[in-house]
Specification:
Elements: E1 2-3, H1 6-16, E2 35-40, E3 45-49, E4 54-57, E5 63-64, E6 68-77, E7 83-91, E8 95-103, E9 111-116, E10 119-126, E11 138-146, E12 151-159, E13 166-172, E14 175-179, E15 185-190, E16 194-199, E17 204-210, E18 220-221, E19 227-233, E20 238-243, E21 248-252, E22 260-263, E23 269-273, E24 279-283, E25 289-292, E26 301-304, E27 310-316, E28 348-354, E29 359-362, E30 367-368, H2 370-377, H3 379-385, E31 395-401, E32 407-413, E33 420-430
Antiparallel strand pairs: 1-8, 2-3, 2-33, 3-4, 5-6, 6-7, 7-8, 8-9, 10-11, 11-12, 12-13, 14-15, 15-16, 16-17, 18-19, 19-20, 20-21, 22-23, 23-24, 24-25, 26-27, 27-28, 28-29, 30-31, 31-32, 32-33
């Protein structure tokens, strides 16, 4: 098994023993469709069905002691309803094991499709389309940290095919990627040096779009696969979109280097935000700005609703609110793209921008769990693969600490003033299907 340093294992155990509580009773969600996969406070995986209000434990063997730990992490839904999840096991000698499970997504336990003694899970993203083995086959792209290679490696894990092979796609550090809607191509942004198109069936890079990419992180195809986002040019301050034939369109932007971007579900618009800047939504055909978040806000993560009518984004609360919980020690956002430094951090707030009505609904302030902070740190990558929105665009899920410092999975019906606690837990994500 992989040898980890004793300090690393001890630090992990200290982190994981914070807030171990039993599950609470779920309340009825205003959204009656979809399922939520969540990691409870004991680090087991559950699936909650919004239509039936049933909560089913998928795993029961997670454990965290002073000498060993087995935890489940980062459930990842496919668009057809199957579910991947990851088990990480450590012992007191520094040995570790990663196991990749794939399940039907209805509540039954999954089966191990891949395991490693030298790799750790960083991120995973299901292909939206079938693989070469047929309609019932999907591929999971798992971004793994390889201690031997000293880099990230992408493993393509097929589920549903006759042979269920494991394909090594590529390596790099950093490594961001997106799928085409048909599942036949991936776009890579790796090593801060290149943007490439990888043909999954050929198993090779077939095009290099830029050897000097814009200042951005996660690349992504348009929903119809006809174009892909290749970043923002830091020198001439432009948004660059590449078409399938290799031509590029450029639009002027009012922002700074390092902006983030997200396609709308129908591909007709792109939302972008520069660091410490507002969110702007542009028409991809004309480049015209058609909506913006309020000027005095500084969003640090944002997510399109599935119906494309709303954008949920997070801002920092810097003035004490009557319902804000007491600050949680060491719960600040020490993330790659953390919110701007503030004199008084009183939590974060969900804001939902209605693009048609040009109105903003706001949630109560909360302190996020460490697992949710990780998703927010790389939100432009996670927004491609993990849904915070319910399939009907009515509710949002997230995880927070309550005022007793217990970790809770929350559901917020955006038409209501208050969210409700679904269960005690550290991470949650909605399914794509209803």
């Amino acid at each position: 098994m992989k040898r980890f340093s004793r300090l690393t294992v001890f630090s992990l155990l200290v982190l994981l023993t914070v807030g171990m509580f039993s599950a609470v009773t779920a309340q009825e969600s205003a959204s009656g469709v979809g399922r939520i996969a969540y990691i409870d406070s004991g680090y087991n995986l559950h699936i909650w069905d919004a239509a039936t209000q049933q909560d089913r434990p998928v795993t029961t063997d997670a454990i965290v002691t002073q000498n060993a730990a087995r935890i489940y992490q980062y459930p990842t839904w496919a668009t057809d309803g199957r579910l991947a999840y990851f088990a990480s096991t450590f012992d007191s000698t520094g040995n570790g094991m990663l196991e990749v499970y794939i399940a039907s997504g209805t509540g039954e336990a999954g089966t191990v499709r891949y395991s490693s003694e030298t790799e750790a899970i960083t991120y995973a993203y299901w292909s939206p389309g079938p693989c070469a083995a047929g309609e019932n086959c999907r591929q999971l792209a798992a971004l793994l940290s390889d201690s031997q290679a000293g880099a990230f490696v992408v493993r393509l894990i097929a589920d549903g095919g006759a042979e269920q092979p494991i394909q090594t796609a590529g390596t790099g550090a950093p490594f961001y990627f997106g799928w085409s809607s048909d599942g036949e191509r991936m776009v890579w942004h790796r090593n801060n040096a290149s943007v490439e198109v990888f043909d999954v069936r050929q198993g090779e890079v077939t095009a290099t779009l830029s050897t000097s990419p814009g200042l951005f992180a996660a690349p992504s195809f348009a929903p119809d696969g006809s174009a892909l986002f290749v970043g923002r040019d830091g020198e001439i301050d432009q948004l660059r979109i590449a078409a399938a034939d290799g031509t590029e369109s450029s639009y002027p932007l009012d922002g700074r280097a390092g902006a983030t971007f997200a396609w709308s579900p129908d591909g007709t618009r792109i939302a972008f935000a520069a660091p410490a800047g507002r969110i702007s939504v542009i028409d991809t055909a004309t480049g015209a700005v058609i909506a913006q978040s309020p000027e005095d806000e500084q969003p640090f993560a944002y997510f399109w609703s599935p119906d494309g009518r709303k954008i949920a984004y997070l801002t920092v609360l810097t003035t004490a609110a009557p319902d804000a919980p007491a600050p949680i020690p060491n719960s600040g956002l020490s993330a790659k793209r953390r919110p701007p430094a503030q004199d008084s951090f009183n939590g974060i707030v969900w804001n939902v921008l209605d693009l048609e009505a040009q109105t903003v609904a706001q949630s109560p302030a909360f302190f996020p769990t460490r697992e949710f902070v990780y998703l927010l740190s790389y939100f432009d990558q996670f927004a491609l693969s993990h849904r915070v929105w319910s399939p009907d665009s009515r509710a949002i899920t997230y995880s927070r600490f309550d005022d007793g410092q217990r970790a809770e999975v929350m559901v917020w019906d955006i038409s209501a003033d208050q969210p409700f606690a679904l269960a005690e837990g550290v991470f949650s994500v909605w399914s794509f299907d209803e």
